[in-house]
Write a structure and sequence with these properties.
single chain; alpha+beta; Thiol Ester Dehydrase, Chain A; 2 helices; 20% helix; elongated
């Protein structure tokens, strides 16, 4: 499976009263990774228009804190392509390859006019499968 690595620019306001990145801010970092991954798939815009993908589920395991000034990156890969959804696995990793957290998210198809999900179009599935086919594993 192909892994896309997205560097994160930490901001001062990402830090909480304990001096580390607030857990809720990590979701913003994961969003950056998801958007970067999907934007690299040629020919399909999954995030705009009437039919798109939206996040419907996130679960995260936290392992180590991150502190102001640390270099972080989000490692993102597709875990599963379903009938109406795409599951992703993401890691946030520090400069010494320390895994800070592991997250699994599910993005569902969504038609904004009809407010319903729909079956993944064949061209979307083809583009996702073609892009994810590589020898890299997480």
């Amino acid at each position: 499976m192909r892994t896309v690595i997205t560097p994160i620019q930490m901001r001062f306001n990402d830090i909480d009263g304990f001096g580390h990145v607030n857990n809720s801010v990590y979701n913003e970092y994961l969003d950056c990774g998801r958007v970067d991954y999907l934007n690299q798939i040629p020919g399909i815009d999954f995030l705009s228009g009437t039919e798109r993908l939206v996040v419907v589920h996130i679960e995260t395991d936290f392992f180590r804190p991150s502190y102001l000034g640390e270099d972080l990156a989000v490692h993102t890969q597709i875990d599963k392509i379903g009938e109406k959804s795409v599951a992703m696995i993401q890691l946030i990793v520090g400069v010494k390859n320390e895994v800070k957290l592991k997250s699994r998210s599910v993005m569902s198809t969504f038609n904004i006019n009809e407010t319903t999900s729909f079956v993944l179009p064949e061209n979307w599935v083809f583009a996702l499968e073609k892009f994810t086919a590589s020898v890299l594993d997480m």
